[in-house]
Amino acid sequence: MIMEPNKTIVYDHILVRYGELSTKGKNKKDFIKRLLTNVKNALRDFEKLSYERTHDRLYILLNGEDAQAVAEILRHVFGISSFSFAIRIPSDITSMIETGLQVAKNAEGTTFKIETRRSDKRFAMISDEVNRAVASEILRNTEWKVNVKQPDLRIQIEIHEQFTYVMTGRMQGAGGYPVGVGGKAVVMLSGGIDSPVAAYLTMKRGVALECIHYASPPYTSARAQEKVIELARLVSRYQGHLRVHIVPFTELQLAIYQNCDESYAITIMRRMMYRIAERIANQCHALAIVNGESIGQVASQTLESMGVINEVTKMPVVRPVATMDKIEIINLARKISTYETSILPFEDCCTIFTPKNPVTKPTLAKALKMESRFDFSDLLDQCVENVTTMDVYPKSEDQADEDLF
Amino acid sequence: MIYFDYASTTPLNQEVLSAYTKLLQQVYANADSLHAPGREAQRLMEKSRAQIAQLLSVKADEILFTSCASEANSTAIKGFALANRHRGNHIITTCVEHSSVLKAFAQLEAEFGFKIDYLPVTKKGIVNAERLHQLLNKDTILVSLMYVNNETGAVNPVIELCEYIHQHSRAMVHVDCVQALGKLSIPLSCIDMATFSAHKIYGLKGSAFLYKQRNIKLLPLINGGQQEQGIRGGTSNAPANIVLAKTLRLALEKQDEHYAYVRSLRDDLCAKLQAMENVQIHSNDLCVPHIVNASFLNVGSEIMLNALDERGFCVSAQSTCSSRSKAHSYVLAAMGLGEHIATHSIRISLSHLTTADEVNQLIQALKEINHDYGTE
User: Fold this and answer.
1) What distances in angstroms separate CA A12 from CA A31, A70, A96, one per listed residue?
2) Cβ contact A221–B34 (<8 Å)
3) Which of A226, A397, A404 sits opposite B22 (nearest CB)?
4) How far apart are CA A363 and CA A35, in angstroms?
5) What is the pLDDT of residues B77-123, one digit of tens each?
6) ipTM for the complex?
């Protein structure tokens, strides 16, 4: 604990409470390990931080780093139910009383409550006795009053064997599982509103992602591609970094329009996209394909279409937003701040050459017949071979323009 | 030459100059072009906007680049009044505003039939809050006032005034922050629109910006393309707009340090002025220390200015933007100081670049002039 000369409290720790993983029995150790890796990864710019891990808490020692800045990053790490700024003191009652009083003196409000949690049951006093001891000191020396139902200030005291942590306030974590404990998948990122939300929701369940984007230059612009990379950057905050595979799709797409009926063009195109996604997924050891399809939203997203399109792969296809209304998806997109980028008006693969009357109830037989008119296998191979891959980090700013700012 | 006219404009910071030179050479593409150099210009400009917004704790889309503070003032005042006529036609401002504000209002009154009320100021040069209470009514759509007066350095209690206006009316508040930037912290959370300029903080001339809260509608004064959300057409001055972020960062980083230094200079200067005969100082402890306004009762403004100029000292007699008209300070007149004081004042403005020795030389020159040209 550091007390500055003017007696303001300096929080020197962040106490992190694990999310759902406490229910996960044998796997718990792996979960905690992964969470620690992810937290360290997310906070890699804060060089002075150090970490301590126990079975039910993760402690981040700030060592002088800015608590608020760390909290801003920590908010985005999955697997954390909540966290608090904490002061570490020795586990003796005198220190607890003194620190509790300082915390109260530094806070604003009129009513308070002490919430003691005794992890070390050998500590001489039970929780309620600690509550009373600390509260009495505050009552004697300040104007604060006790209110156990709706206090303005909650002072939490967690007593462990070696140290005790004193905290106020509790910040909501991102919830979910630590990214990576659920294996890996590829997400088809188009540039629209839905796919970044799908990516976010999948990561939240602990699945690490790589992105696939289909580009059809010159029909799609460099701006459209930059937009997708910006979306990847926004989503990458949730897993530290994101690998993006860009598939050169132009020739294959042109071949589809030359050889298939216009009404089936989108259906066949989606089938090709799934085929490519599966092959990239196999290359990077991903176990599933994720996309932003929502039932009935467009012609290719009716159940009939999904059936015909899905037929090309045996890999699980995860559609996190399948049952959401557009409004619900938009609200989530706003929450993860991808919405403003998603609505930038650039053409993507799915919006160029839009057929006037796309089929909403395609049949597999017809799709297969059209695909048989042309041998797409060479073009498919080329798509996969000529993929360009890049790594996107939450901080995209390249250092090259630093001197301008 | 010794410069005491930093409130008129400031010399360019060398770091800003080198970044600007680089930009002029390298980032020449139109920021709205779709090709790669155009997109790069756009990216850098938006990065600058985001950094400016972050430095002022607002959102990036609340910052609009303009060519000067007068344009920002006009955009805010005329753009707002004309776009919000349906809400009312009454506007309040103060009688000591910068000419770009006063003339915009005069035009709104003469050409568009708005009713404008001018708040008087107290002897200390700040807004008379009681009068504000009387003037606010349900037709009031806008109150425009300055944070720091450009002639006297007087600081209006902006937070208090804004809060009062918001509590007691539907009016939006525009604050001219040009002379406050880099000197005082700017409480944008309670302000709806605010004007800032780069060349007062050691940046470029021809570079300024307007802060405008997201939900406020403005009528564009310069029609054209999609630049600045369509509110300000015209090809973006990308190099100037990009380097503005750095200009602001440098100014704010050293703000406290510079403020303390300039205050010590000001105290020294004022003590020495006070020791002279026939001098009346109009700036006080509540003013920013960067501006010292004083009247030499025996030497007219114009004569003092010429004599100082001859000796190599740069000062102003009043707002530099009104210097071509007769030397008469409407600000001092509005403070109730009388005609004589208003025609005998000069404005000495200081900076962290000013040295104690320069102050001494100025005092010496003033003494000589007072002695040589003073009339009883």
Assistant:
1) 26, 12, 16
2) yes
3) A404
4) 45
5) 999 999 999 999 999 999 999 999 999 999 999 999 999 999 999 99
6) 0.72
CATH number of B2-9+254-369: 3.90.1150.10
Which CATH number among 3.40.50.10140, 3.40.640.10, 2.60.40.420, 2.60.120.200 corresponds to the domain B14-253? 3.40.640.10
Residue type, A104: A
pTM equals: 0.76
Which residues of chain B does A227 touch, with a Cβ-Cβ cutoff of 8 Å? none
Domains located in chain A, CATH noted: 2-175 (3.30.2130.30), 184-396 (3.40.50.620)
pLDDT value, residue A5: 39
Active site residue B177: no
- Element housing B255 (H / E): helix B255-274
Mean of the pLDDT values across residues A198-211?
96
Kindly report the nearest CA distance between residue B253 and chain A, in angstroms: 13
The DSSP call for residue B335 is: T
Give the closest-approach CA distance of A289 to chain B in angstroms.
32
The gap from C-alpha A270 to its chain's centroid, in whole angstroms, comes to 27
**How many CA atoms lie within 13 Å of A59's alpha carbon, on the beta-carbon side?**
19
Under a CB-based contact definition with an 8 Å cutoff, are residues B3 and B350 in contact?
Answer: no
The pLDDT tens digits for B125-142 are: 999 888 899 999 999 999
Nearest residue of A to residue B34, measured between CA atoms: A223
